[in-house]
Amino acid sequence: MGLIEAILLSIVTASTPLLLAASGELIAERAGVLNLGVEGMMLIGAVCGFAGAWATGSTAIGALCGIAAGVALSAMFALATIGLAINQVAAGLALTILGTGLAGLIGAPFVGENIIAAPHLWLPWLTDVPLIGKLLFGQDALVYLAIGLIAAIAYVLARTRTGLILRAVGDDPASAHALGYNVAAIRTLAVLFGGGCAGLAGAYLTLAYTPFYAPGMTAGRGWIALALVVFASWRPGRLVAGAILFGAVSILQLHAQAIGLGVPSQLMSALPYLATVLVLVLISRVRRGGSVAPAALGTAFVPER
Amino acid sequence: MNKAIMAALVLAASCAGLSAATAQDKPDSKPDKLKIGFVYVGPVGDFGWSYQHDQARQAIIKEFGDRVETTFLEKVGEGPDGERSIEQLARAGHKLIFATSFGYMDSVIKVAKKYPDVKFEHATGYKREPNVSTYAGRFYEGRTIQGTIAAKVSKKGVLGYIGSFPVPEVISGINATMLAAQKINPNIKIKIVWVNSWFNPGKEADAAKALIDQGADVIMQHTDSAAAMQIANDRGIHAFGQDSDMIKFGPKAQLTAIVNNWTPYYVSRVKAVMDGNWASQDVWEGLKDKMIQMAPYTNMPDDVKKLAADTEAGIAAGTIKPFACPIVDQDGKEVECKGGDQLDDGQIRGMNFYVKGIDDKIPGK
């Protein structure tokens, strides 16, 4: 395996959890709900995904457990912010704190346990094609799932009636309500979808990335996913680009160090974040940069009776 | 909206303080019960650094039973968080506090001045007060053994090293590895990647992959998770565990591991407080005193096993000196030998240069 191929493979692995979590958050935000609890949902997904795979020996069941855990946690958030119209920022932060604590509690017996890593796809001949073989046909199943997911999201948002309704709820919930759509139900579904994606993103860490569980192993990836949504100015295509960029910079800086480029490693570690800030600045200079920020993002909607 | 954000922040702050609040004294605890506090930089389940400190805490409970009451705070950030946590423990009536990361140093000194009747133990620091002791392990002794083994088992002659932060403790580990490896293979190469974190499994795994992809066939780490060990096992190469025996994560990969054993020291310090003869001191122990131990030598030929065991015995006996003079830095300049025939402790503890043969630069230098 050549170095370039190896680097590309690591970039895909590094980008996948970010893409998964950010995809879910994109949908929630497009429906007008800002859920800052992504890190907490990822953590709970990480531990439950691990627990599921550990108990059954199946990666697929592990992934489902991760999704279920994320959905369950986001249901609490939906109840608070949509049902009770509690402030979304406050509830989201509380969700991360809750998720962190809960994951620690659930995860205690699993620390130091081992599972088999998620299997990688292998197609005869195709996977053996140099350079692109492993990249295209040799990833673990969750990578393809993430790619399929974001493609579906892009299609649904842009081309379908469902997408139109979702965007309407995020931009102008009052009008959507007046047209007869159930804003609360649509927003709840969007939040649950976001929770499921975040849970799966967390499970990716314990099932594929490093097949063991340790407390706090998301290490801030949930916050990066949140930033990616803004970075992508709420557009799926840019979300993919952002996730790959972030993954690439974080992998390339490690390779640059191993080669011995002599650039301070502290600066290298900060590069992905600096890149994010830079792109945000550039985007904002291009007259809103085609941003489709939902107009009602972060505001609760309570229909008047 | 603003009010709500304020409320959220207050909530977040109080939740963060909640774990510390469990340290509040119980009204019915007897005054003769010694309350001992522990501050960990990582999660106790990191299976590395903080895990080993917590093993020692559990040993204290086993040893003293009802005569002690322990509280631990995990994942406490270095800086303001550390200071707040340490002070909270002191205020809550803990008479002996173990602060177990280098970055707590200034916080410990500051809090210690405010609470002169509380005894503090700070791991890996160098600042002391009448009520602050410091202690650390001579981790570099373990690195000397690892360097020896690595040079023997590496087929490509390229070692991969995952560093946390470029502080002297880590630098001296890299140098000890290199000096020992050069004795076996004068042309050995070492590739170093810094992850700027003590605990970030994903990043440690990525660093291990990057090193292996660039040709390293033995991985060593100065970070706290077992991620690199797992990658090495997966890729069919060798690695060393760090802080704890990580054989579980790399049954085919682990050659040995540096195991930090804090128990004897912790028990002796608790006893000293109980007997009323605790005094500020600076302890730096290694293989000889068993503060550092080596996990079983595995996945290597018998002759290498024997060489490793001999090196271990030699260091413990003092016949093998990891930093024996002359030592030449990477610019070709001979390092002043303050300790006679080896570098003195001060030079090792403040090490901020690479030895000859390391083709890299210390970040920030």
Provide keyphrases for this structure:
heterodimer; A: 305 residues; mainly alpha; 12 helices; 71% helix; B: 365 residues; alpha/beta; six-stranded parallel sheet; 11 helices; 40% helix; globular; disordered N terminus
Describe the structure in your own words:
The complex is a heterodimer of chains A (305) and B (365). With 305 residues, chain A is mainly α. Helices cover 71% and strands 0% of the residues of chain A. Chain A has helices spanning 3-30, 38-56, 59-83, 88-107, 133-137, 141-159, 161-171, 173-178, 183-209, 221-231, 236-259, 265-285. In chain A, helix 1 packs across helix 10, helix 2 packs parallel to helix 4 (88-107) and helix 10 crosses helix 11 (236-259). The longest helix of chain A has 28 residues, at 3-30. Chain A is globular. In chain A, 54% of the residues are buried. The mean pLDDT of chain A is 88. Chain B has 365 residues and is of the alpha/beta class. In chain B, the strands form two sheets. A six-stranded parallel β-sheet of chain B has the order 2-1-3-4-5-11, with helices on both faces. A six-stranded mixed β-sheet of chain B has the order 7-6-8-9-10-12, with helices on both faces. In chain B, strand 1, helix 2 (49-64) and strand 2 (68-73) form a beta-alpha-beta unit. The longest helix of chain B has 20 residues, at 2-21. Mean pLDDT of chain B is 89; it is low at 1-29. The interface between A and B is large, with 46 and 55 residues.
